[in-house]
Amino acid sequence: MSCEIKFYSSINELVKIKRILFPNEEAEDNDGESWSDEAWTWKTDFDEASDKNEDKISTDWIQSCLISTSHQFEVLVIAHQDRYVVLSSKWERKNEKEVRKYYVTYPTSTTSDGVGETITSVLCVPIKSLQKSSQGMPDWICVILGFNTGFVRMYTVNGELLMTEVFHDEPVHHLKFHCSAVNPAKQELTVLYQKTLIIIEGLGLLNSLRACRSYIAKGRALYGSGDLHSQHPPLHYKKLGLQEQSRTNDCFVLGTNAPTQFDHLIAASVAGGFQARYNNSPPVATGILSLGSLPYCAWHYAVEGSAAPLLSDVAYALASKVTSKIFSKTSGWLGWGGGAADTAPPKPKDKQVAEPATPVYPRYGLADSLREALSISASPNERFAAVTDSLGRVILIDLPRGVAVRMWKGYRDAQCGWITAWEEVGQLSSSSCSERETTIPRTVSFLVIYITKRGIVEIWTPQQGTRVAAFNYSKGAKGDSSQKARDLHILQQLRTELLHDASATSFDLLMDIRHASIVNQGLDLLLECRHLIDPNTFVKCLDSVVSQYSKAEALDAESRLLLSRCRILSRLARLYIHLKAMQSLPPDYDAVVNASHVSLQDVATILRLDGDEISRSIQRCTTPTLHPIASQSAVEIHTFLCAFELSVGHGSLEDCVRVKSSLSRDDRHALGYWIWGTPFSRNIDLLDELAQVLKSSSIAADDLVAMLVDYWLQLSSPALSNILHFHKLLRILCNFAGPENFNNIETPSPWWQNLKDLLSKSCNLEQACCAALVVRSVMAEFEKRKINRLNDKNAEDTDVNMEDSMNDWEDMSIDFCAWNVLSKQLEDLSFLSRLIRYNPVQLRETQRRDLDFLVEDKYSDNLEFSLASILQKGRGAVSELIARWVTQNLLKVRTLIGSTEETNENSDESMANLSDAELAPEADKLSVGSLEEIVVIQDLIRDLSQHLPHSTQHDVILLNAAVEYAAIWIRNPKHMKLLQRSFETVLPLRSHLFRHGICRTLWSMSFLPIFQDLAILMDKTGRLPKNFTSRKINLPSPDQAVPFLEITMKLLDTAVSSAMSAEIEPPPFIRYDDIWPTCEGATPMQEVAIRHRLVNIDLVLLHHQLAQTLHLVASLEIKGVHVFSLFDQRVGRFAFFKDLHSYPPLPSQEADPIVVQNRLQFLKQVISKAVEHMENNQSFALDYINQAIKLGYEWRVDVDELRIKYVDLLYLNHMDHLAHEVLVSIGSDEKLVSTLLVAAGRRLKMFLKPSDTSALSPMTTEWLLNGFSSKTESVRELEACDPIPTKTLALLVECLCRIPSECNEQFIANELHSLLTTMQGPSL
């Protein structure tokens, strides 16, 4: 095999470099350029001896230097003693070829701090950028220097110190940065001392270096100086002491090793023998291969985890510290130089205390006492390694197994390396429109051996086989080369150029790149550039690349892919240029005039529609005249190109361009506007020219149609002429798809199905309806072509006569029937869309003031809908949407719907029946604008009911509106009027079964949770708490409890009455509109209502009693009442909060006497609290007293006792007229007589003087003084008494009428009556 070494790079400033590194030696007077030509003219063994000696003298100083390069050779570092020089590369042309030349970037003078430091190791580490647009390029280079003092310092290429670390107090022997090709995440920096190894975790180190560099850059920007040292976090590293090896020259970290159980047992038995003790689980260890002497190679394994320091090490360190302290103190006392020590200059404090290393012992190795290993070079897959030794051998070692595989002799002072070759796959990474296939190429690694003494480079297959290639090279050289380094350097320049602007220089740099993979990366950079790119220049650049690769006789797979990509990008760029040129054309006024004369009849003729379809669909969503389309910001070329993904075809398949599926909705709209906006607003003649450019762009026809339909759906009331544009463009694009998409007449076509899906998902129902008619017209034409081809195979695929095809039912395919159904569905929902989009501003404002509530944006639902969403939600979706629109506008359903007295089950009366009589009560409260809005809503509802009559029925809308109002109240519990509105919506329901079902639904959804929590809380506290801050109850304040309980009682009453009526009422017949082909989706509300089982009336009445009790306690502010104590403990309490249709054990009619007494006491408290409000609000007090009396009947307590208590309180408060009305309803005279006599006695006791009672008997006098207790109301009685106690006399008369004969009360009453009669005299 023949090989050739090409001139690659040169250093032009060797004299300058030598002066910097060797300041004490006299440099030659020759300039760098002339000397460089001779110095880099490589010699071989056949040259003359004099030339060899001359070269040796001139290049000996280079051999004494330490040299390191970055992995792409853009930076070269040369170091000697305490000085180093950084050189950067630059590509230049020489003899019509590009070569790399190095120039000095940073000539440092010295790195020594005056302590005799010298550089012992040099390393260049590339730091990659964390930005996604970096394409894997290194952002900057870090120069790491190791010193004989043990320090490791890290610099930028400009000499700025980033970090200083000292890991050990010995000279640094070797620095290595290893990035595994097997595991790219494994990055490690290894620092090798004499017998100590430092392993630094790479990710943390790189992050620390980035932070330090950023800190210095900020310091330079703020303070004008970069001489700032940042405090970086401590590095994560392992410090290992390599034991049992006499000398260590090099090492290689094998990585983490997790042995199997078998290997673990073998290792334990070999190391410890038969009696060895071992752990059950194999320990994870880090493997290190150390090279040197005694042994030749040693495999060390450091178990993961920190090892505790040995006790001897701790004791030794402590003893050393104590000894040094004692010696320093006593030396001053004895005159041993204590003062001199104090006056001596301070030592450098750069020295840090290093922690002890963890000892690591070898498990096995290769022992050869006469051989010393010098260096190691591992293969890319880290399976093999080439080791050079002191005997002139190169040994190939199997790293996992620890055995020597092969040996080469006669290679003294050799240098080893590896190169990787990839298999060329014929159709690598090629893809089609329908599928993508990725083939991973196989790789093979070759061992490269450079013999410095002989100047020969040999390439070998590592394990077996002979030498692959050999060629001469310069003697005593150092370094390596890379085939792609030049292109990567140009790519870095292109990236830097694009950070500022995309100019012609950027395209020149792209055309200078040779490797196809790098060209692809350059194209990616150009497409990601946000700066303005000239489309024409970009097309020229692409054409240049296409021309360059087209001339090649044979191309690899990557080059073929690049060629196809550039061709497709060129077509897309030409399409962009054409679209931009179309936008710059002036408007064609003749076309504008012609478009303005387009009539509905013209559109009907083209689309083959009748008059009804025109009036229902086309006329409502279009305008008769052409109006300009709103302008939109321009789309830049990089945005346009990045919106597509390219698929390269192979074989018989063609290239294909698809719109990216990840493209956002706004970007998709902008792209559609950029393509279709101009043709829709300009002359229709431009469509033919645009069609040709679109066809040549290789964009998939279905994507073009999707963008066209999407653009049409974004229009608002387009002109009639735009329908003709849309029709013609759709026909053209369907022709692009080819006849294979329309051949099958028996099964649905995927082409038309995709269009159907697009229109079904559109929220612009009116435009979607119009588009469906256009698509149906085009589809009918293609159906006719299909039939003609089936009947006559020789028929041409051209336009056909469509006069009779639309009405010929025999020719209708499955697709045509489906589009008829779709058109009807979209037409029906377009009327719903008009209602939902209507905004009754004044009517909503009126209702907002009435409810004192405004629907906030965060609670308002998005009412946008599409045909697909309606079909997905199920049969009740339309009714639910109408109800949601009603509730969000806070409208009264009764005002819009109205009700009639007809209850004929065969009547399908819709929402639009609103009579003047029904609207009259509301009309007085509404403004003129609100009344006009109601009329508009009624018209919209009337039109909608003609298309969807069953979804707009009276009861159906009321059911959904009640649930929606309840849902809004749950989100806004402080607005109790919303819950009241929800209940008011239930009352107009005509069907008792519907009313019963919605009561059950509202009880479970809104009432039961709060009612249960409130009852438990009030029973626990004995009253209504003052606040609910710390209570888990969904009411904002106690003020909401009273109205909530009132609505709860009304709901339970309605549930009972509805259940009683529903038992004799036949179930309603539920019908649905024809828009739903299936029963999928949520259950409609009317079905939910009728599925509820009838309630247990006794259980509902029990809950009503509890609700009434809570309401009385809360509204009258009664304290000390535990509501559950008023019900039977054994049975009644366990029935609370059960399902209303269940039948738990209920309390019997005979209640526990204790419970009866508690009830009686509670009802008396209610009457007492109510009478206190009698003077201020008599109707309020009477209502609560009636509730107490009614509740007493339900609880079966002595109601006469409650009335007697009520009468007593009335007489006590001088409401005798009300008391006389109640007396007739009391049946027990015995208890009543005593109460009436006591009431009269209280009044007389306050009225009579001591002299007036002299005529009374002792018994009567004693009774007036001590027979009853005085109350605080007596003062008020005294003030209210008339001079003549007429009311008291009437009270005594009422008492004498009811008192039994021959009893003490009769005697006392007669005496009092006589006394009052005597005192009044003739006035009586």
TrEMBL record:
Q: Which InterPro entries match?
A: Rab3GAP2, RAB3GAP2_C, RAB3GAP_N
In which compartments does the protein localize?
Cytoplasm
Q: Which UniProt keywords apply?
A: Cytoplasm, GTPase activation
Q: One GO cellular component from the entry?
A: presynaptic membrane
Name any Gene Ontology BP term: synaptic signaling
Pfam families reported for this sequence: RAB3GAP2_C (PF14656), RAB3GAP2_N (PF14655)
Q: Which residues form the Rab3GAP regulatory subunit C-terminal domain?
A: 703-1300
Q: Key word Cytoplasm present in the record?
A: yes
Q: Where is the Rab3-GAP regulatory subunit N-terminal domain?
A: 61-478
Q: Which residue ranges traverse the bilayer?
A: none
Q: Which GO terms describe its molecular function?
A: GTPase activator activity; small GTPase binding
| Family of the protein in this entry | Belongs to the Rab3-GAP regulatory subunit family.
User: What's the name of the protein?
Assistant: Rab3 GTPase-activating protein non-catalytic subunit
Q: Which source organism?
A: Daphnia pulex (Water flea)
